[in-house]
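# nightly structure sweep
# worker-07 picked up a monomer target from the shared queue
# config: single-sequence mode, recycle default, output format = structure tokens
# input follows
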Amino acid sequence: MDEQYIRIHSVEGRHVAELIQKYFQAVGIPLEISQESAGSTLGLTVAPLGVAHLMVSSSRLEEAKDLLEEYLSRGEGKIMNDF
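# output follows
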């Protein structure tokens, strides 16, 4: 059975998403980044094409939400969607 990934947060720019991804990887939580391909290709960091979505496995959802809250409470990253 394939594992389902759920969006937990969205940020402006893939570079911000990659910083958060590294933070998650450091504590052992896999995090995937989803972004519109045109935005990624053109290097956009604002507007709808520049939005990057952070995706985590449904089995790690609660742990990931807690970690994201901790990360954002330190002022590390702009909040777009708080799920």
